[in-house]
Amino acid sequence: MPSLDDDHIGIRIAAQRKRAGLTQQGLAQRIPYSYSLLRHVESGHKSASPQFVAAVARALGIETAVLTGQHTPSPRPDRVTSLVQPVREALDLYDLPPDPHLPTAPPHELVAAADALCRDVRGARLYQAATVLPGLLADLSATCRERPATELWRALASACRSAHDVTTKLGCYDLATVALDRMGWAAEQAGDPLLGAIRQYKRALSYRSRDAEHRIGLRMVAAGHEMLRQTVETTESLAVAGQLHLGAAVIAARAGDRSAVECHLERAGEIARRTGEVGAVHWLSFGPANVGAHEVFARLELRQYDEALAAARAVRPPRGWAASRRAALLVDRARAEMETGRVEAALASLARARELAPQQTRFHPRVRETVSGLLNLRRRSPDALTRMAAWVGV
């Protein structure tokens, strides 16, 4: 039986639950575990598994280290804070007249810069992208107001989408929401339903961590499909439709709706067989590999760990697949390996993810969860795991 001291993990769970304004019943409804187990963990009469702790942390919107009592350095070092603040200001001041004392680049250079920014994000060069974002957002906003053109509005929507991706990966979720609002505004000005639908996909995924509100995310997916009905069917529109189904599968998985997960994965797979690998739809990657990657994540959420590992092994990344996508798949594979007792393999997958995309991997919440789980599984941690834990702040 666990020790009934004054600082066991149940005490910390109860404190954070109360801080969130939830009863035990309310929290139990948000995690895939019973009210009875939660009650016994809080009282100290049952141990909390790493998976249980991770589920509670997600439901409460906090780091697992807050519940485990481990000292955790700030996930946002000074460098990240200094990079993000100018992005925040650029998104906030989008509606002000341009500064006449600051020259802007020619339109064709701004469009090219928006594409280059997407390449940085896909390559997981987050610090570099964050450095470019403020000036590019300001220049595009000013130029769109002075010389509105569809191509420029599309470039602005793309830059706002990049701002969302960067701030999400750096853990600045409030700013990511603002970036999506600006993306929606620019996509509407561009009159591009594909951009609007991609924005709904991104927007819906922000609800995948809110179990009680998953239906809102599914409504956003439906809104994205409705936007696609405004255009003719093309390979590009099919790719966006398939991505919307993948978003719905992820949301349904977090809600524990297995039948919906299977349905959306099947529909996305059908579309992927028609399109093949598509990587040039407003920098959206869709195809059989991306369907497989989303299946891995969905199986993990459903706690189908053997199936998740099998799906991860089956993914065949296409040539030119973004480093950010490859690294994310490795992170999910590591989780599946940990859950199936393959500790060394999990650590190796995390190491490869770090090598491919160090900035993204360091701030990835699932990396922190997996490292915490590996530490709990090993009585004595190997040096590589100890170094990884220190690097991610666990």
Automatic annotation (TrEMBL):
InterPro entries: Cro/C1-type_HTH, Lambda_DNA-bd_dom_sf, TPR-like_helical_dom_sf. GO terms for molecular function: DNA binding. It holds the Pfam family HTH_31. Residues 13-67 form the HTH cro/C1-type domain. CDD domains: HTH_XRE (cd00093). It comes from the Bacteria. This is Helix-turn-helix domain-containing protein.
